[in-house]
Hints:
This protein has one domain (2-339): NAD(P)-binding Rossmann-like Domain (Rossmann fold). The chain is α/β, with parallel strands linked by helices. Helices cover 42% and strands 17% of the residues. It starts with a strand and ends with a helix. The chain is globular, with a radius of gyration of 19 Å. The structure holds uridine-diphosphate-N-acetylglucosamine.
Amino acid sequence: MAILVTGGLGYIGSHTVVELLNNGFEVVIIDDLSNSEKFILKNIEEITKKKPVFYPFDLKRKELLTQVFDAHKIDGCINFAASKAVGESQLKPIDYYENNLFSLINILQEFKERRLSSFIFSSSCTVYGQADTMPIDENTPLRMPESVYGKTKQMGEEILIDFAKAYHRKISLLRYFNPIGAHPSGKIGELPIGVPNNLVPYVMQTAAGIREKLSIWGNDYDTEDGTAVRDYIYVVDLAKAHVAALQRLMNDPSDETLIDIYNLGTGKGSSVLEVIKAFELANNVTVPYQICERREGDITIAYANPYKAEKELNWKSETSLEEALRTVWQWQKYLESRKV
Length: 340
Ligand code: UD1
């Protein structure tokens, strides 16, 4: 069975490709390399001893996409391909809507015409905004996200729900909390391009001396230590949830619509200070930091109730924060070794 993985050389995409290959799926990757690099493909092959098919192009090029569907028997799709920088999305809204939504619609056109089902969409807990109660389960009301990036995720979800209902297809919307870490092999991870926005890559680069100091965006939040709280989930655990979600769609014998929605997190919130401490302890390093003003658009607290995924997917996050942060450091060492 061939699964199309768009954005398959990206951060979560590459880890999911590894899990798919390890579970006996054939994988066809489309990735335009806009936020990834070709060596990730070689490293996926080294880790799995298997060779996914790879096409380097932009999914907005519908004619190339059609050729891929003609050339392979695609049984399902996991769609990771999207631009994801929150700040940039505010400055380039039209580019974000075009890139994130046109590519999705192009794939859905192929799915519609070829009567394919089993589509997994990479969504985000950002669709909940600042929820009134914790933990966040799938019935928590959605709030229109502040960022254009977040809006493309919410719109993507809507498009998919309409698609599934109208054509009786099976889809899964996976709402990730904060993915962190790298593969235990040390060969794939989050590629640092420019100055990182996300906490863990910034911590990693500060510990490595690439950045002088981490700025903690606010310590006056209404939390135990005053810094904001998130649910950090290990990327390999997250990747495994994709395989479980795909198997559930594919094994559903009915011809009826199936719309699965899952929050993927650990169920545990950690503050910024806790993450820094855990990183220092796990890797025996120091992370210099300073307290700064709050970052615009940040929420105080978000952590998942992962019970639905546990029950229906028989999936659970297994890796502790410390273990996940150890792989981050291992990945940094690997990146350094590539430079020399
Ligand atoms: C961000 C995005 C979210 C996206 C997610 C992907 C925003 C507002 N939200 O979530 O839409 O789905 O990344 O992983 O950008 N922090 C610092 N110093 C730093 C960096 C971060 O103190 O240098 C703090 C932040 O204020 C936040 C926490 O660390 O409290 C986590 O930040 P980050 O990793 O950027 O994730 P989110 O903001 O939760």
